[in-house]
Amino acid sequence: EVQLLESGGGLVQPGGSLRLSCAASGFTFSNFVMNWVRQAPGKGLEWVSSISALRNNTYYVESVRGRFTISRDNSKNTLFLQMSSLRAEDTAVYFCAKVGGGYTDAFDTWGQGTMVTVSS
Amino acid sequence: EKVLTQSPATLSVSPGDRATLSCRASQNIGSNLAWYQQRPGQAPRLLIYGASRRATGIPARFSGSGSGTEFTLTITSLQSEDFAVYYCQQYNNWPRTFGQGTKVDIK
What is the pLDDT of residues A46-103, one digit of tens each? Predict the structure, then answer.
């Protein structure tokens, strides 16, 4: 069974840092583009970042560029999101998601999410 | 950036009726559009990709159509588990973008 399990969320002060992880299982992790999507409380979905299968290409929404860094460890089947200079508006549930792969770039599998709260 | 505009914001439907949701793109995205369903407290679930292809395990009452800038998600004979929020997403260009969502609730 394909599974994604996020961890690392929590309460952090404005200006602080946090690293999210997403453990993948049930598929060949190194073959797939991976993504982070967030959802602020009561709001819609916002794509945050993506990383290519071999880590040579990364993409970010403008609001996090220069503050967040996406990375992956294909030997450990794990996706990361290093977040720094956190702001109140970064408060959200963060989901990791994989693309379908050969048949689509849509996000066919999602984790359950991890909550990040930025507050003093 | 490709902006996606969904309408209506809320759709009130009776069980067993049909629901028609719209998603309009600010620029041509071909058929690179997906639809997701999100129930309260759950992660999104992929329903439709390539504008009209059902994802694995998705019931036939869900169908998608359109290309270019105008897209539609149709749910025939709504079941209780279909009352949820639906999002469209384009994956034609970076940044990936989502619509703001349509909530389908019980009339």
Answer: 999 999 998 789 999 999 999 999 999 999 999 999 999 999 999 999 999 999 988 8
Q: Which residues contact A53 (CB under 8 A, 6 or more apart)?
A: A30, A31, A32, A33, A74
Could you give the maximum distance between any two Cα atoms of chain B, in Å?
Answer: 38
The number of C-beta contacts closer than 8 angstroms across A and B is 67
Q: Which residue of A has its CA nearest to B101?
A: A44
DSSP characters for chain B?
---EEEE-SEEEE-TTS-EEEEEEESS--TT-EEEEEE-TTS--EEEEETTTEEPTT--TTEEEEEETTEEEEEE-S--GGG-SEEEEEE-SSSSPEE---EEEEE-
Q: B32: pLDDT confidence band, cut at 50, 70 and 90?
A: very high
| A110/B45 touch (CB, cutoff 8 Å), yes or no | yes
Q: Which residue does chain A place closest to B88, by CA atoms? A: A45
Interface test with B, best of A4, A45, A50 (most B CBs within 10 A): A45
Contacts of A113 in chain B (CB under 8 A): 43
Alpha-carbon distances, residue A81 vs A42, A101, B73 (angstroms): 22, 21, 32
Instruction: Give A99's contacts in chain B (Cβ within 8 Å).
Output: 91
Query: Which residues have C-beta within 8 Å of that of residue B68, sequence separation ≥ 6?
Result: B25, B28, B29, B30
